[in-house]
């Protein structure tokens, strides 16, 4: 009769590996780092265009002065990250967590933050021109009155910091939110096709 111990040990190791975030390869432009853990990594002043960080754990990561245009970071956790002077133009940060992150002077022009949590982030002189914040949490922002939200989209589900100047923003009625989401999806498809064409 064989002992069940080796089999149980194997199952235990498998369970631990599935419960632990994957530590990935170094971040790279056009790389797919879905679900990887890069918490505390230092990647300042790097070019990481079109990177995929979906569901990645990036707590306290240092990406200061890096370029992440067209990044896909849906449901990524950027809690307490250092993103000062970072270029996130046209990035997809849907349902991402950026609570407590430093976003000073970062450029998020045209980025998607639908359902994202930016609570208590430092947005001093950050640019959110044309970004979408449908259903996002923008409460407790530091220096919200110094950030540029011109043409940014929000709806009734968006939690806004009292210091944000909503007169320069665009309110999206619920009936139009589905249309905006569809347009964002079509834009993402166009970006993907463009990325494939460049390869």
Describe this structure in words.
The protein has 199 residues and is mainly alpha-helical. The protein has two helices and four strands; from the N terminus they run αββββα. The strands form two sheets. The chain has a two-stranded parallel sheet with strand order 1-3. It is globular. It starts with a helix and ends with a helix. The relative contact order is 0.09.
Number of helices: 2
Report mean pLDDT, rounded to a whole number: 87
Classify the beta-strand content into a percent band: under 5%
Q: Which regions contain 5 or more consecutive residues with pLDDT less than 50?
A: 16-20
CATH C-level category: Mainly Beta
Terminal CA distance reads: 57 Å
Radius of gyration: 19 Å
Instruction: Report the strand count.
Output: 4
User: What is the assigned CATH homologous superfamily?
Assistant: E3 ubiquitin-protein ligase SopA
Give the helix level as a range of percent: 10-25%
Please outline the major beta sheet.
2 strands, parallel
CATH topology annotation:
Pectate Lyase C-like
Shape: globular
Sketch the topology as an H/E string, one letter per element: HEEEEH
């Amino acid at each position: 009769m064989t002992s069940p111990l080796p089999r149980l040990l194997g199952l235990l190791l498998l369970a631990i590996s599935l419960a632990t975030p994957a530590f990935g390869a170094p971040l790279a432009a056009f790389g797919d780092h879905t679900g990887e853990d890069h918490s505390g990594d230092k990647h300042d002043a790097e070019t990481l265009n079109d990177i995929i960080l979906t569901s990645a754990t990036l707590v306290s990561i240092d990406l200061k002065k890096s370029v992440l245009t067209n990044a896909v970071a849906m449901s990524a956790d950027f809690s307490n990250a250092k993103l000062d002077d970072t270029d996130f133009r046209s990035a997809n940060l849907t349902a991402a967590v950026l609570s407590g992150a430093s976003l000073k002077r970062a450029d998020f022009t045209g980025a998607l933050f639908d359902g994202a949590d930016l609570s208590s982030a430092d947005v001093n002189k950050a640019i959110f021109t044309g970004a979408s914040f449908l259903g996002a949490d923008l409460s407790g922002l530091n220096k919200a009155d110094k950030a540029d939200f011109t043409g940014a989209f929000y709806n009734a589900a968006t939690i806004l910091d009292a210091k944000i100047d909503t007169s320069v923003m665009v309110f999206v009625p619920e009936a139009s939110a589905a249309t905006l989401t569809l347009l964002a999806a079509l834009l993402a498809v166009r970006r993907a096709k463009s990325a494939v064409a460049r390869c």
